[in-house]
Amino acid sequence: DKYIKLKGRLIKGDLYMKPQTKNKISFLVIELLLFLMALFFVHKIFDQNIPEKRVAVILPESGDKRWDSLIKGMKQSAKMNGLHLIICNTDEIGNAEDEEEVIKEQLHNDVDAFVVCPAPGSETKEMLKRTCDDVPVMLITEDIYSGEKQVESGFPVIQPDHYEMGKELGKQLEKGGKK
């Protein structure tokens, strides 16, 4: 057996690596780690590159302060749910034709869904069904009623519970308006 004396110790010769071999192995290990890190980061970049669903929000006078808290809450919810929210800048929406124009513009922008405060008028229900037949629509603040029968539109609606609000106001009035 070959023994090599290194720093005062005897080492068996076949266990000892030359400094050049040790450097090559270190280099290969480092290169392998860098390659694995590069693969990881490439995967993360492309994994997060999934396009967000786009939701258009159509409100009359969308810049009005009355919508501030609603828009703020919708933005927070959109961020938590991975949605891209588009708040459409609008003036007063006086009828279904005005609203249809804004909806068609957003359909050309490839939105995936709508949140709409419905325009006044009995034509709004038919316009929404015709224009948004393959895109989900959620109504806010009120439903669309057609005619005098007050038949609901069939669209999902987020609106206040007027009965519960009135009941709570009545309780507050009984107490003398104190909370």
Descriptive overview:
With 179 residues, the protein is α/β, with parallel strands linked by helices. Helices cover 44% and strands 16% of the residues. It contains five helices and seven strands. The strands form two sheets. The protein has a five-stranded parallel sheet with strand order 4-3-5-6-7, sandwiched between helices. Strands 1-2 form a two-stranded antiparallel ribbon. The longest helix is centred in the N-terminal third of the chain and has 29 residues. The N and C termini lie far apart (96 Å). The mean pLDDT is 80.
Question: Biggest sheet, in brief?
Answer: 5 strands, parallel
Averaged pLDDT, please? 80
Q: How do the strands line up in the largest sheet?
A: 4-3-5-6-7
Task: Show unreliable segments.
Answer: none
- Which term fits the overall shape? elongated
- Put simply, the count of helices is 5
Output the structural class. Answer: alpha/beta
Helix content: 40-55%
Order of helices and strands: EEHEHEHEHEEH
Strand percent estimate: 15-25%
Measured on Cα atoms, how large is the radius of gyration?
33 Å
**Number of strand elements:** 7
- Give the N-to-C terminal Cα separation: 96 Å
Key traits:
179 residues; alpha/beta
Secondary structure elements and pairings:
Layout: E1 3-6, E2 9-12, H1 19-47, E3 53-58, H2 68-81, E4 83-87, H3 96-108, E5 113-116, H4 123-131, E6 137-140, E7 157-158, H5 162-174
Parallel strand pairs: 3-4, 3-5, 5-6, 6-7
Antiparallel strand pairs: 1-2
